[in-house]
């Protein structure tokens, strides 16, 4: 599936969810100072940003095509590639990326699952909504929106096996988790009309997960079945249970990657506030090496300045524990806007950008990115 379509499901509703008034407090506050410090080296010179790009194997028919793309990326200021591809393809790309000076990471789809073997043999692994309907039986929004339940031990073992296999690949720098979350309980306001929806609250058909494992685990913890709660979306303990379920899964995967010398990173929703509200992602609690929030501004009816706002919120929440790379949807950013987005991200503490996707960049955009990096370094 083309991820441009998927990106509509990876978006968020910025209005009413970001802490705008807090973020707009004027002056050189503590976070502004942190952002400046993060951008400076020991002698006061600006550090070179590390830029990344998402890439999918279906866009490149040959090893030579990959080599040309990696070379172009490196010449224009991109240092790392997050590649969605089968393990065998990743193995063949390791030397190609190394030759170009590109750090190679394997981008994987995690809790959203299209594996036919899993779908056929383990239908009980999939999330169930508040109406008792499995997403495998009736996917929300689009047919491919079938998600595994992060609370299930079998699901955790399944993902652990995938990460362990990839961690064995020599020369691979890291593993990048995508769709590491629940289905969207609320879609962004800009996307709801596409599905003839008005989601002014959490409706039961989009509220996950109420499978037997989740219900029993929460009852053991809180003494009550979540289905018997008067207002499940408003119950702080039940909300926290689902945040923690994803967090525990992520943190269990980290030593599997680190034990083989691999980084573990993730694509996440664009700010902690939005991520928690829309998809139960409490990503500041994850002990990852880096985060790539998807700041696809037009899905939120926002302009380019919003990229700086959500970058700042994410950097503040991480408090130096991990680096943040602002994810940009390049088809909405002509050259001058791309440069501005880069400047805003760096001014607000990002360690660089992540481009969705390098294969959609025009020559003019590549030139603008190269210029922006040079100007930033002074």
One letter per element, helices H and strands E, the order comes to HHHEHEHEHHEHHEHEHEHEH
Helical segment count: 13
User: Roughly what percent helix?
Assistant: 25-40%
Question: CATH class, anyone?
Answer: Alpha Beta
Q: How many β-strands, per DSSP?
A: 8
Structural class: alpha/beta
Tally of distinct domains: 1
Radius of gyration: 20 Å
Distance between the termini: 41 Å
What's the CATH architecture? Alpha-Beta Barrel
Question: What fraction strand?
Answer: 5-15%
Mean pLDDT: 90
Poorly predicted ranges (pLDDT <50, ≥5 residues)? 1-45
What would you note in describing this structure?
This protein is of the alpha/beta class. It has one domain (3-377): Alpha-Beta Barrel (TIM Barrel), CATH 3.20.20.80. The protein is 40% helix and 12% strand. It has 13 helices and 8 strands. It has helices at residues 3-7, 20-23, 30-38, 63-75, 87-100, 116-121, 153-167, 212-222, 236-258, 272-279, 305-318, 335-347, 363-377; strands spanning 52-56, 80-84, 103-109, 174-178, 263-268, 290-293, 323-329, 352-356. The protein has an 8-stranded parallel barrel, surrounded by 5 helices. Strand 5 (263-268), helix 10 (272-279) and strand 6 (290-293) form a beta-alpha-beta unit. The longest helix is centred in the middle third of the chain and has 23 residues, at 236-258. The radius of gyration is 20 Å and the shape is globular. It starts with a helix and ends with a helix. Mean pLDDT is 90; it is low at 1-45.
């Amino acid at each position: 599936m083309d991820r441009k379509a998927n990106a509509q499901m990876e978006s968020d509703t910025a209005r009413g969810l970001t802490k705008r008034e807090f973020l707009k407090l004027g002056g050189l506050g503590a976070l502004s100072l942190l952002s400046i410090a993060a951008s400076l080296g020991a002698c006061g010179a600006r550090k070179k940003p590390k830029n990344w790009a998402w890439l999918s194997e279906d866009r490149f028919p040959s090893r030579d095509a990959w080599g040309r793309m990696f070379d172009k990326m490196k010449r224009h200021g991109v240092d790392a590639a997050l590649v969605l591809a089968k393990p065998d393809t990743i193995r063949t790309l390791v030397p190609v990326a190394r030759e170009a000076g590109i750090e190679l990471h394997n981008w994987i789809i995690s809790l959203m699952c299209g594996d036919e073997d899993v779908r056929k043999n383990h239908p009980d692994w999939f999330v169930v909504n508040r109406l008792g309907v499995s997403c495998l039986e009736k996917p929300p929004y689009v047919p491919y929106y079938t998600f595994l339940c992060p609370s299930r031990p079998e699901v955790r073992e399944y993902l652990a096996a995938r990460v362990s296999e990839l961690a064995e690949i020599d020369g691979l720098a890291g593993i990048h988790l995508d769709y590491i979350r629940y289905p969207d309980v609320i879609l962004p306001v800009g996307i709801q009309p596409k599905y003839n929806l008005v989601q002014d609250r959490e409706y039961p058909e989009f509220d996950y997960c109420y499978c037997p494992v989740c219900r029993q685990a929460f009852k053991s913890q809180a003494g009550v079945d979540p289905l018997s709660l008067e207002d499940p979306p408003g119950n702080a303990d039940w909300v926290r249970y689902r945040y923690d379920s994803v967090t525990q899964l992520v943190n269990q995967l980290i030593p599997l990657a680190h034990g083989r010398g691999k980084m573990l990173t993730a694509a996440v929703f664009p700010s902690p506030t939005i991520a928690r509200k829309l998809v139960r992602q409490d990503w500041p609690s994850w002990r990852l090496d880096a985060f790539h929030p998807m700041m696809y501004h037009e899905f939120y009816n926002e302009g380019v300045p919003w990229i700086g706002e959500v970058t700042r919120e994410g950097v503040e929440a991480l408090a130096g524990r991990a680096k943040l790379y602002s994810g940009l949807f390049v088809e909405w950013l002509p050259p001058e806007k791309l440069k501005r987005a880069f400047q805003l991200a760096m001014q607000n503490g990002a360690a660089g950008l992540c481009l969705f996707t390098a294969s959609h960049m025009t020559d003019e955009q590549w030139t603008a990115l190269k210029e922006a990096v040079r100007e930033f370094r002074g």
